[in-house]
Amino acid sequence: MPSESDADRIARHRPLSCMVSPRFSGVASFMRLPIVDPAEAAGRIDIGLIGIPFDGATTNRPGARLGPRGVRDASTGTRAINPVTGIEPYDLAACADLGDVPVNPIDVAATCARIEAFFAPLAAAGIVPLAVGGDHFVTYPVLRALGHHRPLGLVHIDAHSDTDDGQYDGTRLTHGTPFRRAIEDGVLDPTRMVQIGLRGSQDSADELDWARAQGVRIIGMEEAIGRGLPEVAAEARTRIGDGPAYLSFDIDALDPAYAPGTGTPEIGGFTSREALYLVRAMAGLDLVGADVVEVAPPLDPSGITALAGATLAFEILCLLAEAVAKRRTNATAV
C-alpha cells in the first residue's frame, strides 16, 4: 500500500467526476484530469498525459496534428474503473494532463529537439509519460529522452514497421523511420522489441529485412490471426522480459472500418475488441512510457477514430498505473 503521503498526493489528482459536472462541460483535458504545468510536476505526478500536436513528418494524409485535441475531447467519456480488469488507475498513481509540447509545425528537426527537451526532465523526475500524437515520428524523440541511460524494450502495435531508412531526397526523419533511428541511436534494444499487426504494402524489402537483421521480432497480421492473440501476446511478454519497456500503439493497427481517421489506413486490421485484448494482455510489463499516435480527426467526421484512441489511451494508462504501483511497492520493500 502507498504511504499516507503518497495516498494524499494520489487522491489530489483524480479526474473530475461526471457525478459532479457533466462530461460534456468544462475545458477538455485528457480523461478529465487536472491540468498541471510540467515545470511543477516533479514530486507531484506519477503519470503525465501529454499531447504532441505534430504531423510535419507525415508522408501521406495529414491531420494527426489535431489528434491530441480530438482525443482529449473523446476521453471525457472515460470513467474511473476498467470494466474488464477492474483496475482503478487513479487509485494507483497521481495522474495529470501536462499540456502539449510546443512544436514547430514546419520544422521536423526543430520539433524533434523540442520533444526530447520536453520529455527529458520528466524522465529525470521519474514521471511516466503517456503521449498522444501526432504522427508516429514523435515517438523517436520520446524514446531518445526515456532510453538515454539504458535501451528500452518495445511493444509496437501497428500496420507498418516504421523502420524505413528515409524517403524523399534522403530525408531521415519521417513517420516511417522512428524505430530505425531509435535502434541506431542505441535507445531501443531490438532483441527486446516486438511488432504486432504489420500488413501494409512496402516500397522495398529493406525495411523489414533490416529490422529482422537487428533482431526485431515481427508478427504480421496473418501470423497474429493464424496463431491467435493469446499466443501472440504471451510471446510478446516473454520477448520483452522484466526490463523497462515502452508501448507504442499506432491507430492504423485497427482496420479502417474502426479507425478511418488516420494518415495511412490499411484494410485487414484488428477490430476494436482485438486491440483492447492485445493492450490488456501486456499487463505486468515494466512499462516506463507509452503513446497512441496517428489519430487524424479531420479525416473522420464521425469521431470514432478519436474515440478508439481515447479508449486505448485509458487502457494503456491502466497498465502504466499498475507498473508505477509495482515499482513503488518494490522500492518500499528494499
Q: What is shown here, in short?
A:
The chain has 334 residues and is an alpha/beta fold.
Q: What is the CATH architecture annotation? A: 3-Layer(aba) Sandwich
What is the string of SSEs from the N terminus onward? HEHHEHEHEHEHEHHEHEH
How is the quaternary structure best described?
Answer: single chain
SS class: alpha/beta
Count of spatially separate domains: 1
Largest sheet: 8 strands, parallel
Low-confidence stretches: none
Q: Percent range for helical residues? A: 25-40%
What is the CATH third-level topology name?
Arginase, Chain A
Query: Average pLDDT across residues?
Result: 93
Q: How large is the count of helical segments?
A: 11
Span between termini: 14 Å
